[in-house]
Amino acid sequence: MRLLLKALALGCALSLAGASHAAEKRIGVTAPLDGPLSVLAQQMRDGAALATQASNAELVVIDDGCSEEGGLSAARQLVARQVQAVVGFLCTEAIEAALPVLTEAGIPVITSGVRSNGLTDRHTRTGWLVWRIAPSADAELAAVGNILIPLWRGELFAIVDDGTIHGRELAESLRLAAELAGLQPVFIDTFRPQSDNQVGLVGRLRRSGATHVFVGGDRDDIAIIARDAEGLDYGLTIAGGETLRSAGDLPLAPGTLMIAVPEWADMLDEDAMERFTAAEIVPEGYVVPTYAATEVALKALGTAEAGGTVSDALARGRFETMLGPIAFDEKGDLTENPFRLLRFDGERFLPFE
């Protein structure tokens, strides 16, 4: 908070000093500043403030209210403040309302919070100037097959899901990837979620000969499957999706695999961690991706100074950031899928070796 106040105070001082002393770069930060999402908005503000600390950029922080009306109002304020790029946004309603106004003004947006596929899938039709550090909703589906098929090619694996839309999508994505790779799961099934036990499912898995299983389900169901497999003295490697990171009532078994974006702090080197420590900012939630989005915005602004637009720079550039090199595809999504395979060590998920 102290760092953010300093950054905002500096921005105000520069604005009052007159046009000849104005900041060369002006970055908008948009998020729901009040209400239940304000904690996440503060993470975005902290990340952007730290990223601009060593530059002459001014931060313009605007509340979008996480609503269509708020997003439209925020866009108009950002245009009036003559920002050159915008980072942030948590809510689909707000960013979709803001983008037509910002695009018309030639102001690109780099979101660190909105994952909905439609945001970038409509890029060609809408012409919206939007890029994102946040992975798309499809990124998890693609990662499941891309990661597990090479790893389990020589294993007897099964695929089960809990019948929910998301669980079934994950399972189907892996099944299709296996089919394309010429592989056949030894067992496919749908189980009843939120049951006290999954002994019947585990028994069917053991009879199929499966040594590995991907579960499209939530954290507690996966914990129960692992518990019941251990109770039957059945050695079973279990993998799941990002839901394993959610809070649960039951302990996860050590060795459980998760396909997810690693914790941001685990992706930072020692120098980057020292920056956060010195600023008294915990690199959690949206702090780090918004820092990276702001880094990209500043570098794109620098490229545009030599000729071209900021949007051209974003579309064509490759930017070195705290998270490593970042580039975008033709839709504005990350060219490299950030999902990785992680393994639970009994306390936390760490990169799978």
What do these coordinates show?
The protein is an alpha/beta fold and 353 residues long. Helix content is 43%, strand content 18%. The protein folds into two domains: 2-135 and 265-327, Rossmann fold, CATH 3.40.50.2300; 138-260, Response regulator (Rossmann fold). Strands 7-6-8-9-10-13-14 form a seven-stranded mixed β-sheet, with helices on both faces. It is elongated, with a radius of gyration of 23 Å. The two termini are 37 Å apart. The model is unreliable at 1-23 (pLDDT under 50).
Write the layout of secondary structure elements.
Blueprint: H1 2-16, E1 25-31, H2 38-51, E2 57-63, H3 68-80, E3 85-88, H4 92-104, E4 109-111, H5 118-121, H6 123-126, E5 130-132, H7 138-152, E6 157-161, H8 165-180, E7 187-190, H9 199-208, E8 212-216, H10 219-231, E9 237-240, E10 257-260, H11 270-278, H12 287-305, H13 310-316, E11 318-321, E12 324-327, E13 340-344, E14 349-351
Parallel strand pairs: 1-2, 1-3, 3-4, 4-5, 6-7, 6-8, 8-9, 9-10
Antiparallel strand pairs: 10-13, 11-12, 13-14
Keywords: Amino-acid transport, Signal, Transport
InterPro entries: BCAA_transport, Leu-bd, Peripla_BP_I
Signal peptide: 1-22
Relevant terms:
353 residues; alpha/beta; Rossmann fold; seven-stranded mixed sheet; five-stranded parallel sheet; 18% strand; disordered N terminus; transport; ABC transporter substrate-binding protein; signal; amino-acid transport
How many independent structural domains? 2
Which oligomeric state applies? single chain
- Number of helical stretches of at least 4 residues: 13
Arithmetic mean of pLDDT? 91
Radius of gyration using CA atoms only: 23 Å
Instruction: Kindly report the spatial arrangement of strands forming the biggest sheet.
Output: 7-6-8-9-10-13-14
Query: Class by helix and strand content?
Result: alpha/beta
Total DSSP E strands: 14
Main sheet attributes: strand count, strand direction, barrel closure: 7 strands, mixed
Per DSSP, what share of the residues sits in E-state strands of 2 or more residues? 15-25%
The CATH H-level homologous superfamily of the largest domain: Response regulator
Topology pattern, helix = H, strand = E: HEHEHEHEHHEHEHEHEHEEHHHEEEE
Spans of at least 5 consecutive residues with low confidence:
1-23
Global outline: elongated
Q: What is the fold-level CATH name, i.e. the topology of the largest domain?
A: Rossmann fold
